[in-house]
Every structure is written in structure tokens, then in C-alpha cells.
Design a protein that fits this description.
The chain is of the alpha+beta class. Helices cover about 65% and strands about 5% of the residues. It has twelve helices and four strands. Strands 2-3-1-4 form a four-stranded antiparallel beta sheet. A hairpin with a 5-residue loop joins β2 and β3. The protein starts with 7 loop residues before the first helix and ends with a helix.
Length: about 400
């Protein structure tokens, strides 16, 4: 059979001890009135807000703030109660109370942090029997809290960028001085002029070679024509061709400087009656052979001169490129240093413009409370009465159960 629980003894016990429950209710009411009447502490409240920035100021996209105030909301209550802040606040609390608050433990018992529903508002509560002390400590706590936020999460203002700007200025000055020192001994213009002169000379030598090669071709053609001519007299046309060839050859400097024996130089023979005289083919061929030898010597000389120019041109080209590379490195170093200096200057200006933007700011200072901070009697009284009734009834039921259990044990 299922065992049943008889509730009649418990009900009877509760009825029989109603006077005890009533006494507990009276005691709870008296305790609530006592707590309400004896509360003489004043509560001051300062309010700190964490605003959401409406815009992000950045003169240079390479240097931007990565701290987001919304990500720090959960850390702020713990930071507000940190030992470092309490140590700073304890000095002011001890001074304000004449040494009554002598430890951080005492101070911690007076402080309380509450976070609003949207987590962007923090309430810093300070309770003390002196309303002025409570107000002073609440405002001092808010100031120390904001200073700690700036130290921990802030950028330190523009001090960091000013230090970097000083170093950037020194680097820029050094780069500029190095560039000036390089320009005082820079031979790049001189090398360019020398290289241009040698290039022009090389171009002239190559033109002479082309001219002399054409002259050789013309000499060969004229020789073949004279050798195949069956006449014993050189015609006027052939004499003029030979003279033109010699004049063309003499246009180059080397041939003009090459001595040709007078008896081998090409001549246009004109008699006393202003008529062209006859010239023997053998004599004309001899003169063409002498001219050919002189032209070939000039070609060999031009080739030697061109071969001698090549090392000088290569050396100047190498020196020119080296000077260009050295100057380019110095210019790039100067440009980078100047860009860094400009970027840091703009960052300082950005910090100056946005100096009023902080990660957290004081929304409301604590005023001196006019009335003590007492518990809400409407809430406190029912709470204590309910607790007294439940506690007394529980004790009566427990005592009744114990007594019934002993009685059943004795009966069995």
C-alpha cells in the first residue's frame, strides 16, 4: 500500500503557533522601520558615457584609429574598480575625510558601479555619511576613471606622433644634406657632355668610313673601265671621274692628312691653248692605285679610332649609370623622408582637430545630495515580512516533523 502523509499535525501546529508567526511579522516590520529610520548615508552619483563616433577623421588612410569604443564597454566596470584607480582615489578620500578612510578596502565598500541597459552609460555611486564627501569622491572617481581609460585605451594624444615627427625631421634633414653633398661632386653633367662629344665623334668616323668605302667602290669601277678601254688615251669623262673621286676622298680628314706623292696625285691636264691634253691609261691607273692605298690606309685609321673610342664610351656610360643610380637613391630617400614627415604632420593636425573626441567622457557630475539614501520602504517592508513568515513557518513545520518522527519511533 502507498504510504500517505498526514498533514493535520502540521496544520494544527501552524494554527497553534499563530502567535509566533504574528510575532515574527511584527519583528520584521520593526526591523524594516529601524533600517529605514537609521539609514543616514548620502549617495552621490556621477555618470560616464561612451559615445558612438558619428564620423572618423583620417587625413592619411595608412594611419587610422583601430580602437572601437563599443568593444570596450564590458571592460569599463572592472576598470573602474581596479586597484590602480582606487589607489589614486584613496589619497583624495583620506584627505577629504581627515584620514577616516585609510585603506582601499574601506574605500571599495563605499563604491558601486552600475551599467545602464544600453551599456553606454556607467553610473558611479559613492555612499558616505557626509554628503559633500560623497559628491567629492564621486567626481574624483569619474576623473580618475576617465584618465585611466585614456591611458589604457587612448593614443596618448599627439605626443607619440610628435616624437615620431622629430625623428622624421632629423631623417629628412640628413637626406637633404646627403643629396646636397652628392650634387657638389656630381659629374653627371660633365659625363653627359663628354659622352655626347664622343658619340658625335664616333658618328663622324662612321660617316667617314661610309664615304671611304664608296670611294673604294668608285676606284674599282673606274679601274675596270680604264683597263677594258682599248684606246691609248684617257677620255675627258674618265679624267673628270677620277678627279671627282679624289675630291670625294679628300673630304675626309684622314685622307687629306695622308701625304700623296705629287707625281701620283690625280691631275686634269690642260694645254696652253686651254684644250685638255691626252693622258695615258697606265699613268692614270698608277694614280688611282696610289689613291686606293691612301683610302685603305684612311679606313684602317678610322677603324683604329673607332676601336679606341669604344672603351671610353663604355666607361662614361658606366659612370653615368652609377651616378644616376646614386642620385636616384638619394632622391628616393629624400622623397620618402619628406612623405613620412608630411604624413606625421597631418596626423598631428588630425589629432588637434579631433582633440575633443575621447573614448569615454563625463556625462554628468555628481551634485551634493540633499537627503540620505534610504531603502524603499514599500519594497523593504513586504520583503522582510514575507521572509519572517516563511522562516517561522518553516521552523514550526520542521519541529513538528521531528516530534512526529520520534512519536512514531516510540510507538513501533
Amino acid at each position: 500500500m502507498d504510504e500517505t502523509i498526514d498533514l493535520r499535525p502540521y496544520v494544527t501546529a501552524l494554527v497553534r503557533h499563530l502567535w509566533l508567526i504574528g510575532g515574527a511579522v511584527v519583528a520584521a516590520i520593526a526591523l524594516a522601520l529601524l533600517l529605514y529610520s537609521t539609514s543616514n548615508e548620502f549617495e552621490a552619483r556621477a555618470m560616464v558615457t561612451v559615445p558612438e563616433p558619428s564620423q572618423q577623421l583620417a587625413f592619411d588612410p595608412r594611419i587610422v584609429d583601430i580602437v572601437r569604443p563599443a568593444l570596450l564597454l564590458n571592460a569599463y566596470p572592472e576598470l573602474a574598480m581596479s586597484d590602480d584607480i582606487l589607489a589614486r582615489l584613496q589619497e583624495r578620500a583620506s584627505e577629504a575625510t581627515g584620514g577616516a578612510i585609510a585603506s582601499r578596502g574601506q574605500l571599495r565598500g563605499l563604491l558601486d558601479v552600475q551599467q545602464a541597459a544600453d551599456a553606454r552609460l556607467l553610473y558611479l555611486h559613492v555612499r558616505h555619511e557626509d554628503p559633500e564627501v560623497a559628491s567629492l569622491l564621486a567626481n574624483a572617481w569619474a576623473e580618475e576613471f576617465l584618465a585611466a581609460i585614456e591611458r589604457v585605451y587612448g593614443t596618448g594624444g599627439t605626443d607619440f606622433y610628435r616624437q615620431q615627427l622629430t625623428q622624421a625631421d632629423q631623417t629628412l634633414r640628413a637626406a637633404e644634406e646627403a643629396l646636397v653633398a652628392f650634387q657638389t661632386t656630381n659629374r653627371q653633367g660633365i659625363v653627359d657632355n663628354e659622352l655626347a662629344a664622343l658619340t658625335d665623334l664616333q658618328r663622324a668616323y662612321l660617316a667617314d668610313q661610309n664615304t671611304l668605302n664608296l670611294v673604294l667602290d668608285n676606284i674599282r669601277t673606274l679601274r675596270v673601265q680604264l683597263e677594258t678601254n682599248g684606246s691609248d688615251v684617257v677620255s675627258l669623262a674618265d679624267q673628270l671621274s677620277a678627279l671627282i673621286i679624289q675630291l670625294k676622298a679628300y673630304e675626309t680628314q684622314s685622307v687629306s692628312q695622308t701625304p700623296v706623292p705629287p707625281q701620283q696625285s690625280l691631275q686634269l691636264n690642260i694645254g696652253s691653248d686651254m684644250q685638255l691634253t691626252a693622258t695615258q691609261p697606265a699613268e692614270q691607273l698608277q694614280r688611282l692605285e696610289a689613291l686606293r692605298a691612301a683610302v685603305e690606309g684612311a679606313l684602317a685609321q678610322r677603324q683604329e679610332q673607332l676601336d679606341a673610342l669604344q672603351p671610353r664610351i663604355f666607361a662614361l656610360q658606366t659612370e653615368k649609370q652609377q651616378l644616376f643610380n646614386q642620385g636616384d637613391r638619394l632622391v628616393r630617400a629624400r622623397d620618402i623622408a619628406q612623405e613620412t614627415y608630411t604624413t606625421l604632420s597631418r596626423k598631428i593636425d588630425e589629432g588637434r582637430i579631433a582633440s575633443e573626441k575621447t573614448i569615454a567622457r563625463l556625462a554628468s557630475r555628481a551634485s551634493v545630495p540633499e537627503h540620505p539614501s534610504r531603502p524603499n520602504l514599500v519594497v523593504l517592508l513586504p520583503l522582510l515580512v514575507t521572509a519572517a513568515v516563511l522562516l517561522t513557518a518553516g521552523l514550526i513545520i520542521a519541529h513538528t516533523w521531528w516530534r512526529e518522527a520520534r512519536k512514531n519511533s516510540a510507538a513501533s
